Every structure is written in structure tokens, then in C-alpha cells.
Amino acid sequence: MTTNITPDPAAIVPGTVLPEWRVRPTNLQLFRFSAVTWNAHRIHYDQEYARVEGYPNVLVQSHLHGAFLAEALVAWLGQDLLFRELSWRNKHYAVPGDELTVSGTVVAVEREAGEHVFEIDLAEHNQGGTLCAPGRAVVVTGGARR
Amino acid sequence: MTSPIRQCYDAVRETIGQERAERLGRIDSRDVRRFTVAVRGEEPRPEDPVHPLFLTSILHWGTGPGGSGLRPDGLGPDDTHGLPVDEVRVMGAGQEIVVHRRPEPGTVVTIHTSVTDADYRHGRTGELLIVRVRRRFGDDSGADLVTCHETFLAR
């Protein structure tokens, strides 16, 4: 996974492009995510079942795609980031070994009481350029937050 | 003869607007840290907050059934939020979450679940059922924590 240097929030404006964040999910990661979410769907750990369903390998969980979008923002803006909204759609599957790249662009900024509120369009693509998960987030940094 | 997907659609339509309430239990700090390790691949700091998708990613807060009680795909009967989808293949298609207040370890969580919409399509690739479910997570004082609209596809 890639990490970034946290930017000055005051310097972030509409049109600011996030540094790309990359992750290569592993079988271990899928196992742990299924375990902690108590998700027993075989598509995430049973390779033979996944192949019968028409996939080349077990699949990255829907929610893990969303979590990767969140992680890209945390890597950029820091652990103290507060999420107000987060959304994504699962458009294409990913399997262990895929290199997933999360990119994003700030589309709106509000400054209120020392807080910086950013609305950000996000996209997760695989190594072939296929869009796996488009998303959007509204996040807050700085100030006294909830 | 009505197809399983169409039967499922008709059954889901009947549930629109009906809300189920359930007490899920207390957020365990160990589970919060494990979630972060699973997502991030590294140990969390003690001060790391609960991940924004922690509440909305967990399929089951109890033990669920033993192996013989699972569907052929591995899901349990309660893993699809009460949707009557026993005979079809179900997959998650995304979420829209709004965080009202960041949950903390130790918080006792309740959930209110309802189907908000269902759509049936029959196209070139076959039948498709699209279901939207709203889940409202709150604490035991009644305050909202997270609202999640999740989309499921069934084929």
C-alpha cells in the first residue's frame, strides 16, 4: 500500500488532485476481512466455487472496495480525518494480486469554524484500467470535530 | 411459470416500508482493531478511530447458523438483511453512508432496517433484481450513528 505526505488543508481547492493510492489485495487480506465481518460467502475464499461462478479467482469483498477508497483519503489527509459521507458502487470485480489504484479529485471545498470540508470524487481502477469502484466522499479535517 | 427472480421481486416488493429493529450489541475494541488490520494490513495505533465502514460492513453480529444452516453460497439466512432471496444469487453493489456521529468502542448499537426500493429487469444478460436497503445504526440512547443505503443485485 502507498502512503503520502499530509498536505496543508488550507491549500486544498476545487480541482486538487489526490496522489494515487495503490493496494494489491491478498488472500490473507480477504480471509481476514471475511472473518472480521463474519462474511461466509464462498465467493471470497473458495476458489473452485468462484470459478464455477465464472470468475478467475476469489473476489475482493464489496465493502473492501469501499474501504480502499476510505484508506486513500486517510493516507492523504491523515488518520484524524472525519468522514461525513462515503459512497461507492461496485462496477467490476477484483481478485487477489490485482493492483488497484485509487484516484480522486476535490470537487468542492467549504471552510467553517476552522474546519475544512472537502467533497471528493473517487475512482478505483485495476491494473488494466478497468473501473472497479467509483465513489464520492465528504470529509472534514481541522477544527474541533465531533 | 414465474421465475425465482420474479418471485423474489414480488416478495421483496411486499416488504417495502416495513422496518425491523434489532439490538446488535456492544462495539468491541478488539473487533475495531481487527477491522483496521484487515483493511490496512498493519497494526492500528491505539488512538485510531473506528473505521467509517466498520458498522456497515459486518454481515452478522451474532454467531449465525452452523455450516448446515448456510445457503450453498455460504450466506446465512440473516446475512441478507431479511430479504426473501433464498433461491437466488445475491451480491453487494455498493453503499451510501452518512455518518451522524462517529461510533466508539463500547457503544451499544441498534439497527433499523427497511427495504426502500426494488427493481426488476429482464435484458440481454437475463433477469436482474435490484434491491435498495436502508439501515439506520443508532446507540442505545436513540441517537443516530450511521445511515446506510445499500444496493444488492440478485440474479
From TrEMBL, chain A:
InterPro entries: FAS1-like_DH_region, HotDog_dom_sf, Mitochondrial_HTD2
Any GO molecular function: (3R)-hydroxyacyl-[acyl-carrier-protein] dehydratase activity
Domain of life of the native organism: Bacteria
Domain FAS1-like dehydratase: 30-116
The protein's name: MaoC dehydratase-like protein
Native organism taxonomy: Bacteria, Bacillati, Actinomycetota, Actinomycetes, Pseudonocardiales
From TrEMBL, chain B:
Residues annotated as domain FAS1-like dehydratase: 81-146
Gene3D superfamilies reported in the protein's UniProt record: Hotdog Thioesterase (3.10.129.10)
Xref: SUPFAM superfamilies: Thioesterase/thiol ester dehydrase-isomerase
Family annotation (InterPro entries): FAS1-like_DH_region, HotDog_dom_sf
Pfam family, one: FAS1_DH_region
Listed name of the protein: MaoC dehydratase-like protein
Organism field: Prauserella shujinwangii
Classification lineage: Bacteria, Bacillati, Actinomycetota, Actinomycetes, Pseudonocardiales
